[in-house]
């Protein structure tokens, strides 16, 4: 269909009035440009917010023990209970679709007394007993040494991973941190790692740098917790929302701790997934609005093409009459007009895509160069290639449609009437 | 070549119907050179348009080269125009953004002829009308006579059975008119059937047969002694 002759026909017709062709093309160009910029902006914002969450596993629930609010099996209401190591094993065994179940214990916190001593210096820090998986649920940068590992867990090693904030307060600047000892509530721990929190969320970035992580088993033994588990961080597999799985976990725990199945308050939890879904909902709305606005701008560009094609065909009525007198069949004429509009919309659309990608790469470059890049909540604004492809397909169809109306109009005119137009 | 029997045609002008052709019987043999004359409104252009399959008669029969022309759909009509007929118009009707050569090549393009052959043949016909040097020029760069000669080359390019010319000299001065007529006479000399519509008697006398139309009917139809256009130049 597109041999050299067809191309030269199309190019000749389009370049017969270059200014008008340019103005028309600009409508489509602008439409697809705005569409891509809008979509990328919303994608960039999404990326930015996600980065600020520091790669937190969002399919996660934190769960702790409250006191019961209903009597059950002869036990009174208001009874407090604790999770035990056995609960962790039971959850891992009985509940399907979970990725990590990390029991945690905590000392200090919320402006508590000084609980950590090193030489003559003291400080009040949150001390956590954790399993190695925890770093996968709430990522942090290990800047020196290592995080807690299973060797530590199995042999109850008294080792600690401390934050940079802790180092600032307990160490002199030139002192070697790894291998040194700190005393937590009278128990000596060897520092084996230094972490740096990467989450900017929640506004307590300062606090987040002042934590101490020790092996969970060591924590229980050293601070006399027996087999008590303070709380758990439970992450589900990617395709199984924790929100759907949590009721099964609650039922299991209620059964193990003789809690009334209807007791809604005994188990305290924070469902990160549910919260994140709200943010996601916001993003969906943002994306939808971008599509909405972009597509409507695109549509107005296409209407511009329909308009201009109608004018072009009207102006070329006589030419079409001549062509038909010389033996052009109606289909030849329709084909010609359709190809003109498709080529026009396709080229201007592609120009829009190219221009948009140039602008995007410029913005990306600017973002990377920015000195406070980490604080800008826009990261890698980009658009899905599939979306671009769909936009192009829409453009082709729109071009076809834009050409179809004037083409049919053109062919309906009898050749003799077309020739009479001066 | 052309056989017309009892042809009627009327136009709808608002509520009034205008009866333009009121029963035309008309035959043209191969190789004839016919001019159709008449005052404006006599129906001569309408007749030519019907012969050119640009318009359709209301009733009567029309046979072109033994092919009945009746109730054709537009696609077949286009093919017949391309194959049987070459058109020359008063206002030249060249496509103004195409070069002379491309204009001549257009009917061949619609025949689906390959590019190289098409260009060669177009060049041959351009040369025939004496415009080989103007092949790359646009119509806007040419004089009226040159444009009409390009139009004639275009009409001949597809080697039609009949050349139809509607006031071919209507927009030209006398000298150029005679040059164009000389060219058309040469074409007829080579055996091509030619039909022209004109209201200038000196042009009509350069043909071999004059048909007078009056109020939609043939008033007279007589053979004449052809005046060679070259005798004026």
UniProtKB/TrEMBL annotation, chain A:
The chain crosses the membrane at residues 21-41, 288-313, 342-367, 387-411. Residues 21-246 form the MacB-like periplasmic core domain. Its main location: membrane. It is a multi-pass membrane protein. The keyword Transmembrane applies. Residues 292-414 form the ABC3 transporter permease C-terminal domain. Keywords: Cell membrane, Membrane, Transmembrane, Transmembrane helix. It is found in: Cell membrane. The keyword Transmembrane applies. Belongs to the ABC-4 integral membrane protein family. This is ABC transporter permease. It comes from Sphingobacterium faecale.
TrEMBL record, chain B:
Coiled coil: none annotated. The keyword Methyltransferase does not apply. SUPFAM superfamilies: P-loop containing nucleoside triphosphate hydrolases. It holds the Pfam family ABC_tran. Keywords: ATP-binding, Nucleotide-binding, Translocase, Transport. GO terms for molecular function: ATP binding. Signal peptide: none annotated. The keyword GTP-binding does not apply. It comes from the Bacteria. Residues 2-233 form the ABC transporter domain. Gene3D superfamilies: P-loop containing nucleotide triphosphate hydrolases. Belongs to the ABC transporter superfamily. This is ABC transporter ATP-binding protein.
């Amino acid at each position: 269909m597109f041999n050299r002759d067809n191309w030269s026909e199309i190019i000749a017709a389009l370049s017969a009035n270059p200014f008008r062709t340019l103005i028309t093309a600009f409508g489509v160009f602008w439409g697809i440009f705005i569409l891509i910029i809008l979509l990328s902006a919303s994608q960039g914002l999404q990326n930015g917010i996600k980065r600020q969450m520091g790669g937190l596993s969002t399919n996660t629930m934190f769960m702790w023990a409250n006191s019961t609010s209903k009597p059950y099996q002869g036990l009174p209401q208001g009874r407090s209970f604790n999770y035990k190591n056995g609960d962790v094993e039971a959850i891992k065994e009985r509940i399907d679709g979970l990725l990590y179940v990390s029991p945690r214990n905590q000392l200090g916190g919320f402006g508590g007394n000084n609980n950590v001593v090193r030489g003559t210096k003291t400080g009040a820090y949150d001390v956590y007993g954790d399993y190695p998986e925890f770093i996968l649920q709430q990522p942090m940068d290990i800047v020196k040494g290592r995080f807690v590992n299973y060797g530590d867990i199995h042999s109850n090693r008294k080792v600690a991973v401390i934050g940079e904030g802790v180092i600032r307060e307990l160490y002199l600047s030139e002192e070697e941190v790894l291998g040194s000892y700190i005393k937590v509530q009278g128990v000596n721990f060897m520092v084996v790692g230094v972490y740096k929190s990467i989450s900017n969320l929640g506004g307590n970035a300062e606090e987040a740098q002042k934590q101490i992580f020790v092996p969970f088993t060591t924590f229980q033994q050293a601070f006399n917790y027996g087999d008590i588990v303070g709380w758990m961080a439970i992450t589900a597999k990617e395709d199984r929302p924790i929100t759907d799985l949590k009721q099964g976990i609650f039922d299991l725990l209620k059964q193990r701790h003789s809690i009334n199945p209807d007791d809604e308050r005994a188990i305290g939890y924070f469902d990160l997934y549910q919260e994140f879904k709200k943010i996601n909902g916001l993003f969906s709305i943002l994306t939808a609005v971008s599509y909405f606005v972009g597509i409507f701008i695109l549509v107005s560009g296409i209407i511009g093409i329909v308009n201009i094609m109608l004018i072009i065909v009207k102006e070329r009525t006589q030419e079409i009459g001549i062509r038909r007198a010389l033996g052009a069949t109606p289909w030849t004429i329709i084909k010609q007009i359709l190809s003109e509009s498709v080529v026009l919309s396709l080229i201007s659309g592609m120009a829009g895509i190219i221009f948009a990608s140039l602008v995007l790469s410029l913005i990306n470059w600017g973002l990377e160069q920015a000195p406070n890049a980490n604080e800008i909540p826009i990261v890698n604004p980009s658009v899905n290639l599939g979306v671009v492809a769909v936009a192009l397909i829409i453009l082709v169809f729109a071009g076809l449609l834009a050409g179809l109306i004037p083409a049919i109009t053109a062919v309906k005119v009898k050749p003799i009437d077309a020739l009479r137009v001066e | 070549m052309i056989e017309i029997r009892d042809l009627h045609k009327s136009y709808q002008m608002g509520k009034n119907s205008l009866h333009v052709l009121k029963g035309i019987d008309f035959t043209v043999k191969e190789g004839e050179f016919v001019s159709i004359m008449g005052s404006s409104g006599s129906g001569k252009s309408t007749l030519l348009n019907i012969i050119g399959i640009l318009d359709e008669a209301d009733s009567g029969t029309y046979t072109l080269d033994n092919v009945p022309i009746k109730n054709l759909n537009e696609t077949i009509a286009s093919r017949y125009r391309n194959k049987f007929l070459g058109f020359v118009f008063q206002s030249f009707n060249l496509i103004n953004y195409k070069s002379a050569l491309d204009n001549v090549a257009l009917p061949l393009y619609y025949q689906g002829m390959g590019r190289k052959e098409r260009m060669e043949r177009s060049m041959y016909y351009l040369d025939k009308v004496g415009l080989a040097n103007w092949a790359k020029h646009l119509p806007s760069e040419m004089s009226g006579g040159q444009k009409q000669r390009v139009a004639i080359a275009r009409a001949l390019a597809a080697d039609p059975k009949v050349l139809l010319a509607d006031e071919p000299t209507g927009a030209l001065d006398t000298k150029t008119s005679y040059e164009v007529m000389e060219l058309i006479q040469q074409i007829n000399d080579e055996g091509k059937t030619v039909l022209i519509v004109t209201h200038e008697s000196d042009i009509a006398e350069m043909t071999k047969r004059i048909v007078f139309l009056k109020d939609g009917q043939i008033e007279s139809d007589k053979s004449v002694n052809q005046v060679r256009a070259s005798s004026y130049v």
